[in-house]
Specification:
single chain, mainly beta, seven-stranded antiparallel beta sheet, five-stranded antiparallel beta sheet, 4 helices
Length: 363
């Protein structure tokens, strides 16, 4: 089914039939004692500069038996998950390196009780990178507990720095994330084709006009919140022939005399969220869920998206890490056929650098 709930500081939604999937009433409601044998709990948060543990999300109950779970961020670096049912306690800690440049963290807990495995993962949405740890066999989670967590703020604890939390009835992938909406036109030898229509073995044109094959066409459906909130880039800015909608992390390739002067580089990569200014780029109106697509190319080549240059999917040397590939959208791919991408050719701008570039272009 997929995503069934989300909440932020303003309120939440819980729809067991699937967010944005089916009209209300088309599926029978789940039984009051229904369990989630597998699923994914995602929390996105801003790290707090405090000397005490940061309780991101927690819940406890006493009937019909004692149960609780808690996800905490540790001031020394690390995420701790504690989950109990009756007298059975499960505990895990995932260390991660503290970085003052981190704007937000995405914590993902996925479990499969019948398969007797679970994992806890941490990602920085603004950079490529993933830390993950396998956990002891998990408990199934009562669906009623999740309903309470996502719809009744009085019966949970959620830190004020949490941007959103979301729940899926499936094990969701982590790792490299597509960033183009399905309708973004991508230049091919036969003209522009919507990103959502391109498939493996199709060809696209790179910046120098050379055709390259599409190794994989990947897509993912996610809540339109936080680091997934779509950004509308408006024509004619950035060389666009029409408006396009992309994910906040999708990086544009920007060239020009200002780029060479300010950064001593022919081009730079700029995440779309750093370009949001209310006129040339703004957060887009969106339904609860959004789907993103992107193309895996042999050498992380640039692609033409409606006239602007943007990057294809970057996976670095992920093929050398089979455990992480197994967590990602690339799970079904032949690892031996995956490319290795060196570090991006162009520097990636930080937020203040993107603001400086925008001011110089406006001057």
């Amino acid at each position: 089914m997929g995503w069934i709930a989300f909440t932020d500081q303003t309120g939440g939604h819980f729809m067991p039939q699937g967010l944005g999937e089916c009209p209300t009433g088309t599926l029978a409601p789940p039984a009051p004692d229904a369990l989630m044998p597998r699923g994914t709990l995602m929390i996105e948060t801003r790290p707090a500069a405090e000397s005490r543990p940061q309780t991101l999300l927690s819940f406890s109950r006493s009937h019909p038996w004692r149960g609780s779970f808690s996800v905490q961020a540790l001031p020394s670096g690390g995420i701790t998950l504690i989950e109990t049912q009756a007298d059975d306690l499960r505990h895990a800690t995932l260390p991660y390196r503290i970085d003052d440049r981190t704007d937000s963290l995405r914590i993902t807990y996925s479990w499969d009780a019948p398969g007797r495995w679970a994992r806890l993962s941490v990602e920085r949405p603004d950079v490529f990178g993933l830390t993950s740890v396998a956990l002891v066999p998990p408990h199934p989670i009562p669906l009623s507990d999740m309903r309470t967590v996502f719809t009744d703020p009085r019966q949970r604890v959620m830190d004020r720095e949490v941007i959103f939390a979301a729940l899926s009835s499936r094990v969701e992938p982590v790792g490299p994330m597509p960033g183009l909406s399905a309708t973004v036109p991508v230049l091919t030898p036969g003209g522009y084709v919507a990103a959502g229509r391109l498939r493996r073995a199709d060809q696209v044109l790179t910046t120098d006009g050379a055709p390259v094959p599409v190794l994989q066409s990947l897509n993912r459906r996610v809540p339109a919140l936080g680091s997934f909130r779509p950004v509308r880039l408006r024509a004619p800015y950035f060389g666009l022939r029409r408006d396009i909608v992309v994910a906040p992390h999708q990086r544009l390739v920007i060239r020009g005399s200002e780029v060479e002067y300010l950064f001593n580089s022919e081009a730079v990569l700029v995440p779309a969220r750093y370009l949001v200014n209310g006129f040339s780029a703004l957060f887009a109106e969106s339904p609860m869920m959004v789907s993103y697509h992107n193309l895996l190319l042999p050498g992380h080549e640039e692609i033409d998206a409606a006239g602007t240059q943007t990057e294809s999917l970057y996976i670095g040397r992920l093929r050398r890490k089979p455990d992480l590939i197994g967590c990602s959208l690339l799970e079904a791919c032949d690892r031996a056929r995956l490319p290795e991408h060196p570090r991006p050719l162009w520097p990636v701008l930080k937020p203040y650098e993107a603001i400086t570039l925008a001011m110089n272009r406006a001057a």
